[in-house]
Amino acid sequence: MSSTGTTARVLSGGPVAERILSEVAEGVSGLRAVGVTPALATVLVGDDDASAGYIRIKQRQAAELGFASPHVRLSGSASQADLHAVLADFNADRGVHGVLVQYPVPGQLDYDRALQVLDPDKDVDGLHPVNMGRLALGLPGPLPCTPAGIEALLAFHQVPVAGREVVVLGRGATLGRPLAMLLAQKRPTANAAVTVVHTGVADWPRYTRRAEILVAAAGVPGIVRPEHVRPGAVVVGGGVRYEGRRLLPDVDESCAEVAGAITPRVGGVGPTTVAMLFRNALEAARRSTGVA
Ligand SMILES: NC(=O)c1ccc[n+]([C@@H]2O[C@H](COP(=O)([O-])OP(=O)(O)OC[C@H]3O[C@@H](n4cnc5c(N)ncnc54)[C@H](OP(=O)(O)O)[C@@H]3O)[C@@H](O)[C@H]2O)c1
Asked: Ranges for the Tetrahydrofolate dehydrogenase/cyclohydrolase NAD(P)-binding domain (predicted)?
């Protein structure tokens, strides 16, 4: 036991992301070798510093991996039609395989409506309704990045999932709902008994306390406390809220004293989410060009 009383094994996302990204880099160079340059386009609306910073990081990473990354920046007063026009151009451009619209967008714009204009095959976030449908049916398509990152994280750290009881706190469209679908699929790294709890389940700790794997996906800082965790369980912190640049996770750090394994406060699920974005872009390029 360390001086902080922490006993849980730490499930870092960094090495998982590194492995995924090195596979992506290999895949990209394979495509380039046959004359295909995979392209991940980015769209930024407005001049929010944090969003501009995130886009810059993704563009740098895209370039390092060998992607082309055309970029469009719209003014903060852009209309929904302006955003849709940019997406329609990228949809029509056969040289663009994936498109990322940086979230959040300014208040006058509806992000979900814009997402629906995007060609689902170019949706690297994997959140387009068609891709949610594909996920529900187990059809190939871009997977939602954070859920796919969590499955990869558990597999990398050799946490058995198949046949085990997984409880997901939260049924949001980005994380809880697609994660539940993903981990219930018939596959060695999934195949779990999944329960989803939310505000409609007043006594949700009754479920989380029996979970062998507990995933926090609520976006409520500190909602998961040690008394909600089965001793020795695996705890994955997916939900976060930002106050400015300060990250406030769902999982209280003291859960490490009860859990058998736990994602770190920073560097857990986040890096795997970003890695999955690039994997989706690579897969989109492979699918659209027919090059394996
Ligand atoms: N780490 C990453 O890279 C990453 C990436 C994407 C998203 N996220 C985070 O994931 C979280 C979830 O995002 P989302 O878009 O999927 O979800 P969301 O739409 O924000 O929904 C949150 C869910 O949590 C439930 N919930 C909220 N407060 C609760 C409470 N007190 N008791 C029980 N359930 C509660 C809600 O229940 P109801 O349905 O009943 O309202 C809802 O299902 C967010 O914090 C987001 O920031 C993290």
From this structure: 144-288
Asked whether 102 lines ligand 1 (CB < 6 A), one says no
Question: Which residue is catalytic, options 102, 119, 123, 250?
Answer: 102
CATH number of 144-272: 3.40.50.720
How confident is the prediction for the chain on average, in pLDDT? 96
The vertex-108 CA angle with 106 and 112, nearest 5°, equals 80
Domain ranges of the chain: 35-121, 144-272
Confirm or reject: Cβ of 265 under 6 Å from ligand 1: no
pLDDT tens by residue, 205-222: 999 999 999 999 999 999
Tokens of 182: 């993903």
CB atoms within 10 A of CB 137: 9
Q: Does domain 35-121 have CATH number 3.30.2130.30?
A: no
Q: What is the pLDDT of residues 115-128, one digit of tens each?
A: 999 999 999 999 99
- Closest by alpha carbon to 247, among 263, 228, 229? 263
Rg (CA), the chain: 19
Q: Are 189 and 156 in contact (CB under 8 A)?
A: no
- pTM value > 0.85: yes
Taking the CA of residue 173 as reference, the ligand 1 atom at the shortest distance is: 16
